[in-house]
């Protein structure tokens, strides 16, 4: 036994001596710190092998005089555990007293920047934490890093205000805080950044006025404050920035005049103040003092008055969507490089309406010089149009009379059909709406009296309240036989009458195992109407995905098999609704509307929002069964609703199941859209490993299960295509979820065959091909929704902003992926662009 112990000690001593001989670090503390950093960040052994010299053999480690001066983990491979739990655990960095550079760009580090960074990394000259999924606030202690020259914190989820302590970084040359969630004003202390050459605060939520003190930053070459909420007027002091090459102040709420000093900076190449509310006469453009090939964008403001010439040296100038008037007079500039649409100019096409221009000038007590000339032309035009329309007036009148007659006949026919309608099965196309009186509800479960309902719920006791829904309040209830039920109380003084009529009307016409079972109803109370549902033992998906276990109080997450089962169940229910005639749109697919019974079988709830596709104007009861609008209406908008909206919402449900983030489906605010945009960057048919950066860390998955998770994520991205016409029908999505491995494995094993023979098409092509070819769109562009919730140009600059790029792929690879990847070509193009 003693001999074995002696051998063990000898082996340990030999290994220790080997390590001593191979490590050239002069500090044992730094060697231990590197090993600790290797473990906490989950860096693979092949990148940082233990038995080799870190200064010579470790990727990204830079030494000087046998001491670590630089660490770059960007692009390094991580262990499986490190990918699933990417936390900000870098305490070991505090041991590197001479560290000058730390680069973790694109390396997931969930968490916040520790406060000690600015206290113990005093020698740091470059800190790069771009696209690391960092959250929380920027520590004010970073102002203590007086040697810092470059600070990159862009494309994260940093919140709160910009700390004024950053203004103490007198040696700083580059400060990039763009594409975060920062708010508040720009600190006045930034005027002390005398050596800064690039300042980027774009794509945040900064407000207030632009500090005039920024005009004192004499070395500044690039200033980007775009896509924020800055107000007030432009400070003329910015014209003192004689070295400025690029100035971007677009997409804010700036007002007032445009200072002429901003147009006379000698080295200015790019100047963008578009998408603001700048007003007053446009300064003389003939006085622009710009370098050769300058690009100026003054569009979408309120500039008025004449256009005062252009210069030859300007490459492009955009003056569109203003209120400029008169004749365009240039001094040699090319009008082909000038955008003048949506103004009040003469002899130029695509201008504003004359009345709109006149009203703009009248409201400001200004003279509209173009009015007289245009009025004569308009009078001649009016005479011509009057003659044309007068000749066709009689024909138009006859057509209108004919339409009214046909419409009346159609109403009479529908009335006859309605009288013969029964309550059996889905309504076929052309069948009339159900009666407005709720006589049909007798076919939906048992009829309860209001006294019975009060007895069930304990007079609607607050202790029995489950939640306040958007169509009524939900209470626990107990039947006489002891069975637990759920009762929805619709207070007609608070909710619309249609909310309960739609549910009962729907279930009197259609029947499916994936719809929530209704046990009965109560209609005999004038004020309160009630619906009694079967009790779902496992509640809804929102409360069951992560649930606290009663026995030990620990958080328990749903396993992957159950998640896949739930996704398939929801897809079955939606596919059934969409295949009805006319197609029915659920409109309220979210985690809280997906109910789960004792075996985690799915029952779709929140049926009060169901309508027939494309119909928003008819009575809430009749619209569920009315004749659908034209099938060509593929885009969901204010006047139509299609199945594509349900598919989009279902895509968010799939992402909830993959990532464990249960808050995605319940809102469409800017934060959710930013999260979606950031997450979709990690879903690609070309690289399964990227998915591990977003997968739910509580999921325990092996290689085969990870492929199923990968497949579901690909289907989710297809459902979230920004173009409704390019989202897959629900029946195709259901097929994909029933055979998830075929999505990802065919790409690996048969892509070469698929490119050479059209007869051996892939599984995905068989299911998704018909939908792809039916779309007339050849491409898609992801557009961000702005803070008010309407799609527009405000946030287009944020496309693909989060996450680092992937691998570059040849065009042949793209063609192959089109055959197996369940997305339209438009989405493929976007993904390929992100991967480059």
From TrEMBL:
Molecular function as annotated in GO: ATP binding; protein kinase activity
InterPro entries, sorted: Kinase-like_dom_sf, Leu-rich_rpt, Leu-rich_rpt_typical-subtyp, LRR_dom_sf, LRR_N_plant-typ, Plant_LRR-RLKs, Prot_kinase_dom, Ser-Thr/Tyr_kinase_cat_dom
Primary localization: membrane
Signal sequence, renumbered to the chain: 1-24
Database matches in SUPFAM superfamilies: L domain-like, Protein kinase-like (PK-like)
Keyword Ribosomal protein attributed: no
Subcellular location: Membrane
Residue ranges with Polar residues bias: 772-798
Chain spans, region Disordered: 772-836
Transmembrane segments: 381-406
Pfam families: LRR_1, LRR_8, LRRNT_2, PK_Tyr_Ser-Thr
Encoding gene, per UniProt annotation: 25482140
This protein's GO CC annotations: membrane
Keywords: ATP-binding, Glycoprotein, Kinase, Leucine-rich repeat, Membrane, Nucleotide-binding, Receptor, Repeat, Signal, Transferase, Transmembrane, Transmembrane helix
The keyword Cytoplasm is assigned to this record: no
Name the record gives this protein: LRR receptor-like kinase family protein
Domain called Protein kinase: residue spans: 460-742
């Amino acid at each position: 036994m003693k001999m074995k112990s002696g051998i063990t000690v000898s082996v340990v001593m030999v290994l220790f001596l080997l390590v001593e001989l191979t490590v050239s670090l002069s500090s044992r503390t730094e060697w231990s710190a590197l090993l600790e950093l290797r473990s906490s960040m989950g860096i693979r052994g092949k990148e940082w092998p233990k038995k080799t010299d870190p200064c010579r053999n470790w990727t990204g480690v830079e030494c000087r005089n046998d001491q670590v001066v630089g660490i770059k983990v960007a692009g390094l491979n991580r262990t499986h555990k490190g990918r699933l739990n990417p936390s900000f655990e870098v305490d070991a960095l505090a041991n590197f007293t001479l560290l000058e550079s730390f680069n973790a760009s694109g390396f997931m580090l969930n968490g916040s920047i520790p406060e000690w960074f600015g206290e113990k990394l005093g020698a740091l000259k470059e800190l790069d934490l771009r696209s690391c999924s960092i959250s929380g606030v920027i520590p004010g202690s970073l102002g203590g890093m007086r040697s810092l020259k470059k600070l990159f914190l862009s494309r994260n989820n940093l919140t709160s205000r910009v700390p004024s302590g950053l203004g103490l970084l007198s040696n700083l040359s580059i400060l990039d805080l763009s594409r975060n969630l920062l708010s508040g004003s720009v600190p006045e202390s930034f005027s002390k950044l005398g050596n800064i050459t690039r300042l980027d605060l774009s794509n945040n939520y900064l407000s207030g006025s632009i500090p005039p003190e920024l005009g004192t930053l004499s070395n500044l070459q690039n200033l980007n404050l775009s896509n924020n909420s800055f107000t007030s007027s432009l400070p003329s002091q910015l014209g003192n920035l004689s070295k400025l090459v690029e100035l971007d102040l677009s997409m804010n709420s700036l007002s007032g005049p445009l200072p002429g000093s901003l147009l006379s900076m000698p080295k200015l190449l790019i100047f963008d103040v578009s998408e603001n509310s700048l007003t007053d006469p446009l300064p003389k453009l003939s006085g622009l003092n710009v370098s050769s090939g300058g690009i100026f964008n003054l569009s979408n403001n309120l500039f008025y008055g004449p256009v005062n010439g252009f210069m030859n040296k300007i490459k492009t100038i955009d003056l569109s969507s203003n209120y400029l008037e008169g004749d365009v007079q240039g001094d040699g500039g090319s009008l082909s490089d000038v955008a003048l649409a949506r103004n009040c100019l003469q002899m130029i096409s695509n201008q504003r309406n004359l009345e709109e221009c006149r009203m703009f000038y009248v409201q400001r007590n200004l003279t509209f010089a173009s009015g007289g000339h245009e009025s004569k032309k308009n009078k001649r035009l009016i005479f011509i149009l009057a003659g044309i329309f007068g000749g066709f007036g009689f024909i138009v009148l006859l057509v209108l009379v004919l339409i009214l007659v046909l419409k009346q006949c159609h109403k009479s026919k529908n009335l006859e059909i309605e009288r013969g309608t029964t309550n059996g099965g889905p309504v076929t196309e052309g069948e009339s709406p159900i009666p407005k009186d709720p006589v049909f509800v007798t076919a939906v479960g048992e009829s309860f009296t209001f006294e019975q309902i009060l007895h069930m719920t304990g007079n609607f006791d607050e202790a029995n309240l489950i939640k306040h829904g958007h169509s009524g309040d939900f209470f626990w209830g107990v039947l006489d036989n002891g069975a637990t039920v759920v009762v929805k109380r619709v207070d007609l003084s608070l909710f619309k009458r249609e909310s309960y009529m739609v549910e009962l009307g729907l279930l009197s016409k259609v029947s499916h195992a994936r719809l929530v079972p209704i046990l009965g109803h109560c209609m005999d109370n004038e004020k309160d109407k009630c619906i009694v549902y079967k009790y779902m033992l496992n509640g809804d998906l929102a409360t069951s995905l992560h649930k606290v276990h009663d026995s030990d109080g620990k958080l328990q997450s749903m396993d992957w098999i159950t998640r896949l089962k739930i996704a398939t169940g929801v897809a079955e229910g939606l596919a059934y609704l969409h295949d009805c005639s006319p197609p029915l749109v659920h409109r309220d697919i979210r985690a809280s509307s997906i109910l789960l019974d004792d075996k985690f079988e799915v029952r779709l709830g929140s049926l009060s929002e169901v309508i027939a596709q494309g119909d928003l104007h008819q009575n809430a009861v009749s619209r569920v069964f009315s004749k659908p609008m034209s099938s060509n209406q593929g885009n969901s908008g204010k006047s139509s609703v299609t199945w594509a909206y349900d598919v989009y919402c279902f895509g968010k449900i799939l992402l909830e199941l993959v990532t464990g983030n249960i808050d995605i489906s319940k809102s469409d605010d800017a934060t959710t859209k930013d999260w979606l945009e950031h997450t979709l960057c990690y879903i690609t048919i070309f690289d399964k490993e990227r998915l591990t950066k977003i997968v739910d860390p509580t999921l325990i998955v092996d290689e085969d299960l990870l492929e199923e998770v990968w497949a579901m994520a690909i289907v989710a991205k297809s459902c979230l295509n920004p173009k409704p016409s390019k989202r897959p029908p629900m029946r195709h999505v259901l097929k994909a979820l029933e055979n998830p491995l075929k999505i990802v494995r065919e790409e690996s094993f048969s892509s070469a065959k698929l490119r050479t023979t059209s007869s051996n098409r892939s599984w995905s092509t068989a299911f998704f091909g018909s939908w792809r070819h039916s779309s007339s769109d050849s491409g898609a562009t992801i557009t961000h929704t702005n803070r008010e919730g309407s799609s527009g140009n405000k946030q287009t600059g944020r496309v693909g902003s989060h996450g680092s790029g992937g691998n570059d792929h040849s065009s042949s690879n793209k063609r192959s992926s089109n055959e197996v990847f369940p997305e339209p070509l438009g989405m493929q193009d976007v993904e390929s662009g992100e991967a480059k």
